Amino acid sequence: SQTIHQWPATLVQPVGSPLSLECTVEGTSNPNLYWYRQAAGRGLQLLFYSVGIGQISSEVPQNLSASRPQDRQFILSSKKLLLSDSGFYLCAWNAGAAYNEQFFGPGTRLTVL
Amino acid sequence: TQLLEQSPQFLSIQEGENLTVYCNSSSVFSSLQWYRQEPGEGPVLLVTVVTGGEVKKLKRLTFQFGDARKDSSLHITAAQPGDTGLYLCAGRSNDYKLSFGAGTTVTVRA
Q1: Rounded to the nearest 5°, which phi and psi values hold at A84?
Q2: Which of A36, A102, A111 to mutate to test the interface with B (most CBs of B within 10 A)?
Q3: Distance from first CA to last CA of chain B, Å, rounded?
Q4: Nearest C-alpha of chain A: how many angstroms from B36?
Q5: Is the previous residue joined to B81 through a cis bond, with omega within 30 degrees of 0?
Q6: I need a labelling partner for B57 at 20 to 30 A (CA). Which of A34, B21, B65, B74 fits?
Q7: What is the arithmetic mean of pLDDT over A68-87?
Q8: Taking 90 as the threshold, does the pLDDT of residue A43 lie above it?
Q9: Cβ-based contacts of B97 with chain A (< 8 Å)
Q10: How far B84 CA lies from chain A's nearest CA (Å)?
Q11: What is the pLDDT of residues B9-51, one digit of tens each?
């Protein structure tokens, strides 16, 4: 069966510091991968998605970037965090364009102080 | 701009009561998913509906997809405290992405 991991689970960072959040998927090959941000108790905003290694599509211009160095690894980064980057970051995967469902990781709670 | 509008935003009911959550859009979707999310965790998929007019049942939960595939509803019969959570609907257009509603926070009091 497939499993999706995210780490760290929680992170507190000062303004201006760099960021690296990691997501890995097990049990599947060539998944589509997604990064979302969620405000407290609200819906999900799509940040980036990737349909293959090295292929990144950005949905929202912002202080963040994404990379996919391996088939089942998706990384969210920032060179200098802003206060507004605080939030709950979720990684998700699905099996490809023919599939409707996305499956989510446990999330990372980021607080920028 | 929220492509999918969910209502109500908050819902608090007593154990044993019924509830309905709505998800509406002016856009047509090829499929629609419902997720439930608990605090500090990722959303968990409940159901996918694909065909206009489709009704799916998952124990005490009934999901319906509108005939025109623009709206959906989730009905819970005899709600239990374990049904508490944030309910999210998400519609798929003809690409790789899902558009999410803002969610309905459901609280079932014992």
Answers
A1: -70, -5
A2: A102
A3: 36
A4: 11
A5: no
A6: A34
A7: 96
A8: no
A9: 46, 49, 59
A10: 13
A11: 999 999 999 999 999 999 999 999 999 999 999 999 999 999 9
B107 bridge partner residues: B12
CA distances from A23 to A70, A71, B27, B105 (A): 11, 11, 31, 27
What is the rounded CA–CA span in Å between residue B11 and residue A76?
A: 34
pLDDT at A66 exceeding the cut of 90: yes
Distances in Å between the alpha carbon of B38 and those of A42, A73, B43, B57, B104? 12, 25, 7, 21, 12
Q: Chain A partners of B45 at a C-beta cutoff of 8 Å?
A: 101-103
List all residues 6 or more positions away from A99 whose beta carbon is below 8 Å from its beta carbon. Answer: none
**How far is B72 from chain A, CA to nearest CA, in Å?**
16
User: Using the beta-carbon criterion (under 8 Å), do B103 and A43 form an inter-chain contact?
Assistant: yes
